[in-house]
Write a structure and sequence with these properties.
Layout lengths: L1 H32 L5 H31 L4 H30 L14 H75 L4 H18 L5 E2 H19 L3 E8 L5 E3 L5 H10 L7 E9 L3 E9 L10 H14 L4 E7 L2 E9 L1 E2 L2
Parallel strand pairs: 2-4
Antiparallel strand pairs: 1-3, 3-8, 4-5, 5-7, 6-7
Helix pairs in contact: 1-2, 2-3, 2-4, 3-4, 4-5, 4-6, 4-8, 5-6, 6-7
Length: about 350
């Protein structure tokens, strides 16, 4: 297919050149013979001007311009153009001379032959050369723009594919981390043969469905993310019993608000994983609020380590993912104050139709 396309392009290019030079020949016959009735003389004389016109045009287009002008060798371009002008001027005079000599036998009596003077004939030849050169530069510029645009599109497409692959890799790092902790919770209840195990299995099934089938979507409804956060909290409440205190408040501005899947849930999972009981109680406070164009997410949990570790695999992956999704538009703050580990997140919102 590519070979066929290449052959088609060459054929079109050749056809365009043939049509152009045929048009130049007819221009010469009209320009030189306007007002003359001796068409045979004019046609023959025009034919003698064609070789020097074609050779001079292609010499400039195929040699001088690409080797010197386009490579910004301006001094050499001007120098060799001057040489070309001197040599071509002589060649044009010779072409005119031979055209006059070998066409003279066609001259009829009492009829006009050429209606243009020698300087005008020379100007006419250079006019055609300038037109041919200008057309070649226009075409070159057009094709270069198309080529540059195609290269730019390919580069952007490659960058997008790399970004998608990297984002997918970050998601796959989050999934086992989250799933491992959830299964540990279920394992503990299975050992106790708790009656709450079936309800836990149902909630875990919903979470697995979310992780395996929904997470590859570019975005999900915020209310779905909230529902799975509720399911996760319910699982943890069942596991911690009286030793857990969770306060989850949410204020959603728009029911059609969308966010990337599994964006908030890892923060919640991280709070339970690294949270520490103080006086026998693990406390987790979550506040979620949306406005017309932003989402604010605040979560804190009890902790006895006042050193903030921002480089753990969970938070590190989340930070990379936020950067890839929102760039500088997202704001993530992580701090630890008075036995409280605090995470504050702000992201721009995408609202559904």
């Amino acid at each position: 297919m590519k070979r066929f396309t290449s052959i088609a392009k060459r054929f079109i290019f050749l056809l365009f050149n043939i049509i152009f030079w045929i048009g130049v020949y007819f221009f010469y016959t009209y320009f030189l013979g306007y007002g003359s009735s001796n068409t045979a003389y004019v046609d023959t004389f025009s034919a003698y001007l064609m070789p020097i016109t074609i050779f001079l045009s292609y010499f400039i287009i195929l040699y001088l311009i690409p080797n010197y002008l386009l490579k910004k060798k301006y001094f050499l371009f001007i120098l060799y153009s001057s040489y070309t002008f001197i040599i071509s001027f002589t060649a044009i005079l010779l072409s005119i001379f031979f055209g006059l000599v070998f066409s003279s036998f066609l001259e009829g009596t009492n009829t006009k032959t050429l209606t243009k003077s020698l300087p005008l004939v020379i100007i006419g030849v250079y006019f055609i050369v300038i037109v041919a050169t200008s057309l070649s530069l226009i075409i070159y510029n057009y094709l270069s723009n198309i080529k540059n645009e195609n290269l730019k599109n390919k580069f952007l497409q490659t960058q997008l594919q790399l970004k998608e692959q990297k984002l997918k890799f970050l998601k796959m790092q989050i999934h086992p981390h989250f799933l491992f902790n959830t299964l540990n919770t279920l394992y503990g209840f299975a050992l106790k043969k708790s009656e709450e195990a079936p309800d836990m299995i149902l909630k875990l099934s919903n979470l697995l469905d979310y992780i395996l089938y929904q997470v590859d979507k570019p975005s999900v409804l915020l209310k779905n993310e909230i529902q799975h956060i509720d399911d996760y909290i319910s699982l943890e409440k069942t596991r911690f019993q009286e030793s857990l205190h969770v306060n989850f408040t949410k204020s959603q501005h728009n029911e059609t608000t969308q966010i990337p899947p599994m964006l908030l849930l890892p923060f919640v999972e991280n709070a339970f994983k690294h949270g520490v009981q103080i006086d026998g109680i693990l406390s987790v406070d979550i506040n979620l609020k949306t406005t017309e164009d932003s989402l604010f997410f605040h979560i804190k949990n009890t902790s006895i380590d006042n050193k903030v570790n921002k480089n753990g695999i969970g938070l590190e992956n989340i930070q990379k993912r936020l950067k890839m999704l929102y760039g500088h538009l997202s704001k993530l703050s992580i701090s630890s104050i008075e036995n409280q580990f605090i995470v504050e997140l702000k992201i721009p919102l995408k609202n559904g139709c």
